[in-house]
Amino acid sequence: MTAGPLLLVSDHVGGSVHVLTVPDGIETGRLNGRHLSEHAGFLALPGGRVACVDDRRGELLVLDPFGHELVEAAIPVAVPAEHLAADPSGRWVAVTTGLGENAEPWSDLLTVVDLATGDAARVRTRVGEPGVTVLGNGDPLVVLRHREPGALAVHRFADLLGAPPGCPTATAHAHLPLPDDGHGDAHVPDLCQVLAATGEGVHRARRKGEALVAEPVIPWGSPARGWYLRLDTRRPALWSTLRGGPADPLRWPEWTNQAWCHDLDTDRTTRTELGPGLVFRLALAKDHTAFTRIHPDGDELILLDADGRTARRVPLPAMDGAPRRGGTPWDGVQRRAVAASPDSDWVAVTRGGHGEVHVIDARTGTEAACLKLGTPLHHGGHAILRTPSDRAEGDPVGR
C-alpha cells in the first residue's frame, strides 16, 4: 500500500466510503452500504488509522487505509452518533448519541470501547447532544459536555466499561458548571486539559486526580462566537470560526466570519476576517489552515499562513442545490467538506451534489486535480486526509 497521503471521502447519504491517493485520485479501497455519521465525523488514530461510526448498522469502524485490510474492526455502538473521541493513546473510545433525524434529543446512551480487546459497554447518561473527550494521565476519564443545564460531567472509563448489561444509568462522580450554550470541544493531551466553546469564550478545565479544576476562560475578543473548536497538532494552539451577524438563519448570507487562533504558549489570540456567508469546519495542512466559504455571490477556499494572515483565496465552482438567499444554509441543500493533513500541502474540498473533490496545492493555490467519485456526495459528504506519520491523532476528538 502507498505511504503517501490518502484521502477518505464518505457519502453518508448514498452509503459509501472511498479511499483515494492524492493528488492523482487512484482508488485504493472502497466500502459500500456504509452510512457514516457526518456529525460525529472522523477520528484520527495512530498509524494513519481512522475511526468513524456507521449510523445505519450501529457500528464503530476502525479503518486502516494504509493496511492490507481497510476495515480493521467493527464494534457495535449506540446510534445516532453525535460525538466521538479517544484518549491520547487511541485505545479507549467513547461515542455519544444525539438527535439523528429527529427534532428533539431523545437518546441518553453512551458507548465506551476498548479497541485493544474489542470490549464495549453501553450506559445511560442524560438526554441531550453531549460532546465528549477522553482524558488520559492514568486511568482514563470520560468527560461529557452537557447543555441546558450546562456542565462537564466526569466518569471513570473503567466504571463505564465494567457496567452490567441492560444499559444501566451511569452517574457522574464529578461535575463542573458550564454555561448552557456549549457547542464545540477540544482536548489538549499534554496538559490533560478539556476545553468547551460557549458564548462567553473557551472554558478550560484541567484534570486533577479523578476530577476537573476550572481554569481561566479564553475570551473570543469579539461580539461573535465560535461554534467549533479544534486543537492544532502542529503547535499548541486552538482554532475556531467566529460567527456573527443576524441570528435569523434565513439571513445567513449576512453572517460575518473570522478565523480565530489562540496560541496556548503565548496566550495570544489572532483573528482574521474571512468574509460573509457560511464558514464552519476547518482543516490543518502542513503550513496552512484551510476554510471554505459558501455565499450566493460565489464560494471559495481560504488559506491562511502560519501567522494567521490570508495567503490565498481560491474560487470554487458553484454547486447545484447550494444554499440560497431566503432559505437556511443546512436544510436540504448542498455543502462542502474540507480535508488536509499536517504532514502534507494538499487540501481537498468536496462539491456536494456533483460527486467531485477538488485537490488544491496550498503552497500555490492551484488545483492539481478534480476527482470524480461516481457518487453524488449529497450534503457535501465528509472527508479526512492522512499520512501514516502525520501525528493528527494528537487531536483526539472526532472531526
How does the overall form come out from the CA principal axes? globular
**Rg over alpha carbons:** 20 Å
CATH superfamily of the domain at 77-219: YVTN repeat-like/Quinoprotein amine dehydrogenase
Low-confidence sequence ranges: none
The average pLDDT value, as a whole number, equals: 97
Structural class: mainly beta
Q: Quick one: CATH class of the domain at 77-219?
A: Mainly Beta
Major sheet details: 5 strands, antiparallel
Level-2 CATH architecture of the domain at 77-219: 7 Propeller
Relative helix content: under 10%
Q: What count of helical segments does DSSP give?
A: 1
The CATH topology of the domain at 77-219: Methylamine Dehydrogenase, Chain H
N- and C-termini, Cα separation:
25 Å
Number of E strands = 33
Strand content: over 45%
Provide keyphrases for this structure.
Methylamine Dehydrogenase, Chain H, 1% helix, mainly beta, 399 residues, single chain
Please tell me about this protein's structure.
InterPro entries: Haem_d1_sf, WD40/YVTN_repeat-like_dom_sf. With 399 residues, this protein is mostly beta strands. The protein has a domain of 143 residues: Methylamine Dehydrogenase, Chain H, CATH 2.130.10. It has one helix and 33 strands. Strands 20, 21, 22, 23 and 24 form a five-stranded antiparallel sheet that branches. Strands 3-2-1-33 form a four-stranded antiparallel sheet, with no helix packed on it. Strand 5 and strand 6 form a beta hairpin. The longest helix is centred in the middle third of the chain and has 5 residues. The model has no long low-confidence stretch (mean pLDDT 97).
